[in-house]
Amino acid sequence: MVSKTDDIQASVPNCNVNTVDLAEGETPDHQETKAPNKDPCACGHSASTVVMNGGRAHYHSEEESKQDGGGDMDGGEDSNEQEVIVIQDTGFTVKIQAPGTEPFDLQVSPQEMVQEIHQVLMDREDTCHRTCFSLQLDGNVLDNFAELKSIEGLQEGSLLKVVEEPYTVREARIHVRHIRDLLKSLDPSDAYNGVDCNSLSFLSVFTDGDLGDSGKRKKKGSDLEQIDCTPPEHILPGSKERPLVPLQPQNKDWKPMQCLKVLTMSGWNPPPGNRKMHGDLMYLYMVTVEERHISITASTRGFYLNQSTTYTFNPKPANPSFLSHSLVELLSQISPAFKKNFTVLQKTRVQRHPFERIATPFQVYSWTAPQVDHTMDCVRAEDAYTSRLGYEEHIPGQTRDWNEELQTTRELARKNLPERLLRERAIFKVHSDFAAAATRGSMAVIDGNVMAINPGEETRMQMFIWNNIFFSLGFDVRDHYRELGGDAAAHAAPTNDLNGVRAYGAVDVEGLYTLGTVVVDYRGYRVTAQSIIPGILEREQEQSVIYGSIDFGKTVVSHGKYLELLERTSRPLKVQRHNVLNEKDESVELCSSVECKGIIGNDGRHYILDLLRTFPPDLNFLPVEGEELSPESVRHGFPRQHRHRLACLRQELIEAFVEHRYLLFMKMAALQLMQQKANKESKMATLTENSSPEAAVPALPSTENPDASAKSSETSTETLTDGKSDAVQIETTSTSDAPQPAATEATTIGAAPKAEQTTETDSPSAAATTINASQATPTEDNVVPTVTTNGPLVPVATAIQNGECESPLEGKAEDSIPGLAQAKELAESLAAEDGSVIDPKSREVVLNACKAVGSISNTSFDIRFNPDIFSPGVRFPEDSVDDIQKQKQLLKDAAAFLVSCQIPSLVKDCLDHSALPMDGATLTEALHQRGINVRYLGNVLEFVDKTPAKAQLEHFYRIGISELITRCAKHIFKTYLQGVELSALSAAVSHFLNCFLSSFPDAVAHLPADELVSRRKNRKRRNRVPGGGDNTAWASLTPSELWKNIVSEAQSYYNFTLHCENADQVVEKYALQKITLLREISIKAGIQILIKEYNFDSRHKPAFTEEDILNIFPVVKHVNPKASDAFHFFQSGQAKVQQGYLKEGCELINEALNLFNNVYGAMHVEICACLRLLARLNYIMGDHHEALSNQQKAVLMSERVLGVEHPNTIQEYMHLALYCFANGQLSTALKLLYRARYLMLMVCGEDHPEMALLDSNIGLVLHGVMEYDLSLRFLENALAINSKYHGPRSLKVALSHHLVARVYESKAEFRSALQHEKEGYTIYKNQVGEAHEKTKESSEYLKYLTQQAVALQRTMNEIYKNGSNASIMPLKFTAPSMASVLEQLNIINGIIFIPLSQKDLENLKAEVQRRQQLQESGKSLEELTVDGPLELEDKMPMDVNVD
């Protein structure tokens, strides 16, 4: 809990999760922001339509209703809101009286503990120096851990007294530590060093303090003269310079105010026995700023001066002794400088925004840092060597039992909202503590500070235990993975295992336990850290495994309880129950892969571990003799040999594939039902009742050939497209009475990301809207998987000739027919599981459809995968041959689906800018979201290369190439580092970077000075760091050799051919930036470099020296526990906003914010998304001040939890600038935009579609402050970029022309203005027609410009004719009004306010429906996507990209 005075929003969601932890299907932010308005809600409620998170109007999963004890969905939601109200009891105010200060009021809430008031007091400026006190009410001491509501007599207005308590050794140490923290509170060195969850934030440098209190600030808005608008040279369009130093501007607050020179433990500690009996606890030694050396005794009564010196011990009190209860009071009496500086320091500290100083949940590392002075610090020294290595401070005298903590938090009750919040909060807290401890332990292991538990074995094979965590290295030690790819497999297994842990954790089945798992890459080694199953170390593995196999399937055992527990995960994880043969050829039933082991711990819990094959294998990277892949895969050059045989499909892909099949299933079944109906009617007409039921399905030959699932789906789609006359469309988009069905193509093309995997239930997929959502039957929950869709839906079987996803399913077949009745009939027929209700014909229809899509059940749609298919060593019983054949086919189809559907869909999303990656991390995120593994990067780039619209994908291609190169370099760097001994580390890293980036052709390594090396060579060190060997081999690397290796790595790993022999050729050929490559490799490899200007292009000296390498950080992967209830509120809020109910949406999102704060604390990526959305809503609803305050928090949080130059942070800066401008803070708005532009240049360069938006913003603001020439430079750049990426006929380009014309008009250069406005007018006329109001506006403006031009010409002629005595008509030179500039800013940022009449609403509905039909009929890509959103934009109030 942070200080109350800081007024932190109680706690908030995570939509831009870090790459590894993308919850199934969350859209990363930078992507949502651009989502074009693909499915504006058809119901046209008033106010404003918003697209967020890729347009998921479906929220609450069944989870709600099941958790709240059944009941229908709405019931679940309402009861949920009720519960929330219960939580938020009203707060009350108490008075606090501390010694030596005036009493003050404090607002508290009944849920708080007394301890939280302690925290507040330790943070307040006037009481921060007290740590050892109790709070008393009417003379009674309050219990620290009591909730306020449980304290008798505590009410509004009660007086709490702060009473000083006697010290103990522990309290004295806590006090010294707290004073040290206060003295260091403005010092950024912890953030640079990446310790204690500190991280950097630079927003305050650009905003001069807090934005909220514009009252206190000089109002700069009105006085235009004061603003200095010229940006630094390197920010101007076209500048080639990319300096590094501005990345971390110097914060003037950070000039350290020195209060003390030295504060350290004295060498006289601990006190001898006779002094202990006088109450001495410990001795401190200090040097004040005035150079006075003093010795201080900490005693039970407080702190006083003693008479000891450095060399003589005299513990008697000095005279005067200045006995004080707190060190600060003591020092203030001794040192005037301390008193003065400490006061200033605390004032500054309290003025900083709380978000600048709260710890983040997981450590964020900075890849650049200045040279920070290393100061003397007793607390840091003590932490490094004593307590922190095995013990945690807050549990006296014992290590934490991580496993027990992780599992007991999972066992907490979760029946109602308060219980779930408590549980999720506990889970999250333990996870973040565990991740921090595991990271520290992994580094200690690699640095050689931990003794191995098997010290006799060679270093690669050693295992370690530290702080109750088990550590193992990512090497193939006992030829365990020999068949699977040796070390490469051993390196991949931990991340696969982590994905498995994440998946089982998200399903959250009661009674099934996984291990805490963290994977750390550090100094070239991969370390897996796991919590320890109680009792496992005392037993042999063979005895303890009672489920699964320890030798990859040779011997297999099973266990009833495990089958029952895993059965509950099989539906959400799509894992099929199957039988395998053990060594005695007996059939054993499993519900997971054979590697998954079940062990019952001594605590009686059922643990599963080794989840590396939770998801099925990826056949594109697993050549199997005698198996043919489907033609799509073969066409793309698959199967390919991979480094290891553990390549598996991502969970996101499985989800997308199953959804795609579900749609196919519904279509086929509906088609057959309609044919039956038609047949029936025709038969009724001819009165031939005696016809056989089989004849009712003439169009589907697939009935005869159930095995050829691929073929049958082909057939069915043909039928779909041929039957245009009676075309079927189950999922009608235009029915406004039904909720938007999940399966409408209009909603889906690329826009709907995968819904969150449901947690508490076994629902098939969490989107909770089925096609027949409007008439869901209670039983249906258990039968029909519910689905949202994702991506252009192409039946796998239909071949894709032109590389585009043009498929029958998007075809014309479904323009008009509302097939709701059929869908309903179908749904009901599926709903009766026993088949009693179904007439035989319908049952047969379902059976055919099931067979065609490969469902494992014959009565309902249910696709699951057998993860053991193609596992070496696993054998299946004879009787399951058919089943195995089907499973093999399903895997081939899924692999083909990835290549023929998901990759094209990604590229299409990039073309229409609904996915806008800016750097490697956001690119990876975009791939993962669609279930594409990064090993497909080469294929994705190839696909882009062959796309006709390649020019519009240049940014994407460039980011892809840079990602591919830096990943190859990282692979090489990993093995390179393993051969380097610690003393040569900085030399080796700088040498590698020189070979990688410097133009200097013969980079020579500097070996460490000989005299250090030689002495050590003789003594053989016992505990060598893993991977010894020849420790100077690294020095022989040359740039040409490194680039050769990179090229061959790209070829072998990504199957991509790079044409280049050195860094300069790469930069030249692919238009990359060296600074961007440096950033990417540093982040991936955990390198921290000195922030200074590097000269990469010098051919005379290398760019890096060993002094430039400051640190190597770990790269950590871990599970990110979710706040499920908060997330549902967030989604419901988004859905409300989408339907135009802004106020209700705002309330729900505020509620989500509180719940998120409850679970995550104050800092988290999801809270960031929440704040951003709130700010956007505040802004739309006209509360600019509130918008500014929320957005400021969002920016600070994004800087702190994602990094100061993360693409998300850049977006947040842009939003904040808009709200600043609206609040009249023009110079701040400009500074923020310049900062955003600098960061963007650094991260991805100038040539990126997002740069056009940024430059339009900058140009408009500059226009507003009458800097016309500058403004033109930015606006013309925006125009050029827009024309390149949106096509010259796009409405975005028309708008760009208009903005440029306005500036020319202000400069009175009417000819240029006319020229640009004409261009814009032509685009409008061609795209939206003469009658459209945009076209009319443009034509009006043209007339006005023409008049102005004529008037100007007349005046000029007059001057020429009559010389000095001409009578000059005054010309209207318009400086733009702030309002008009703001209006244009809103338009380009996708926010338009228009009051709507009833008639407009009707038109709007019609327009929405028309567009959706257009999209279904597959109107050409260009017309729809490039210009679509704007055309609508102009007719409705909307926020096109609320994110």
Order of strands across the main sheet: 3-2-6-4-5
The CA-CA distance between the termini, in Å, is 28 Å
Strand proportion: 5-15%
Structural class, by secondary structure, is alpha+beta
Task: Note the quaternary state here.
Answer: single chain
Portion of residues within helices: 40-55%
Q: How many β-strand runs? A: 26
- Average pLDDT works out at 79
**Can you tell me the residue ranges where pLDDT is under 50 for at least 5 consecutive residues?**
1-87, 214-225, 387-396, 688-818, 831-836, 1011-1024, 1418-1443
What does this 3D model show about the protein?
The chain is α+β, with helices and mostly antiparallel strands and 1443 residues long. Helices cover 45% and strands 8% of the residues. It has 47 helices and 26 strands. The strands form seven sheets. It has a five-stranded mixed sheet with strand order 3-2-6-4-5, covered by helices on one side. α29 crosses α31 and α39 (1226-1244) packs antiparallel against α40. The relative contact order is 0.11. The model is unreliable at 1-87, 214-225, 387-396, 688-818, 831-836, 1011-1024 and 1418-1443 (pLDDT under 50).
Summarize the structure.
By secondary structure, this protein is α+β, with helices and mostly antiparallel strands.
Question: Notable features of this structure?
Answer:
disordered C terminus, 5-stranded antiparallel beta sheet, single chain, 47 helices, alpha+beta, 1443 residues
